[in-house]
TrEMBL record:
<dbReference type="GO" id="GO:0016460">
    <property type="term" value="C:myosin II complex"/>
</dbReference>
<dbReference type="InterPro" id="IPR011992">
    <property type="entry name" value="EF-hand-dom_pair"/>
</dbReference>
<protein>
    <recommendedName>
        <fullName>EF-hand domain-containing protein</fullName>
    </recommendedName>
</protein>
<dbReference type="InterPro" id="IPR018247">
    <property type="entry name" value="EF_Hand_1_Ca_BS"/>
</dbReference>
<dbReference type="GO" id="GO:0005509">
    <property type="term" value="F:calcium ion binding"/>
</dbReference>
<dbReference type="InterPro" id="IPR002048">
    <property type="entry name" value="EF_hand_dom"/>
</dbReference>
<feature type="domain" description="EF-hand">
    <location>
        <begin position="66"/>
        <end position="101"/>
    </location>
</feature>
<feature type="domain" description="EF-hand">
    <location>
        <begin position="30"/>
        <end position="65"/>
    </location>
</feature>
<feature type="domain" description="EF-hand">
    <location>
        <begin position="103"/>
        <end position="138"/>
    </location>
</feature>
<keyword id="KW-0677">Repeat</keyword>
<feature type="domain" description="EF-hand">
    <location>
        <begin position="139"/>
        <end position="171"/>
    </location>
</feature>
<keyword id="KW-0106">Calcium</keyword>
<dbReference type="InterPro" id="IPR050230">
    <property type="entry name" value="CALM/Myosin/TropC-like"/>
</dbReference>
<dbReference type="Pfam" id="PF13499">
    <property type="entry name" value="EF-hand_7"/>
</dbReference>
Amino acid sequence: MEKDREKDRERDDEKEFDRWKKEFTQIPEIILREYWEAFKLFDKDGNYLIIKEELATVMRGLGQTPTEEEICIMMTEVDKDGSGYVDFEEFVGLMTRQPSPVDPEEDLRKAFRMFDRDGNGQINATELKHIMTNIGETLTEEQVDDMIQEADIDQDGMINYEEFIRVVATK
């Protein structure tokens, strides 16, 4: 019974994420997925809303260190309807706001660095499996190897930045 509820929730989450993917086509899916997973962590009752008291925790969980004053300012800017809640659209708006113009190349570099955990400029099978597991994908060794092989143009068993861009650009 509990497993059925869990599966239903996962199915609902994926449907909701797919809906948002269509809304945010300008954001690479890997980055949008990272935002989605962070958002869901703090959505305690599963209604796709984060209460404002949890916003600071969300931001810190994503590696940012806002002050209490900055949180209040963010909440005022983000919570457009004054509901006291942040929905996913508002959350993405918060995560993507930047003082300078949006740089898609930098977003792609950030996504690549997220995969390239050891910072060697290459993504290996272990790194790929780790990040895919963190975004909710359970992959077999064979599936990971297939993904590497599909992207690995120079056949060195690793994915470099150029190969990564080629794969992301086709998705």
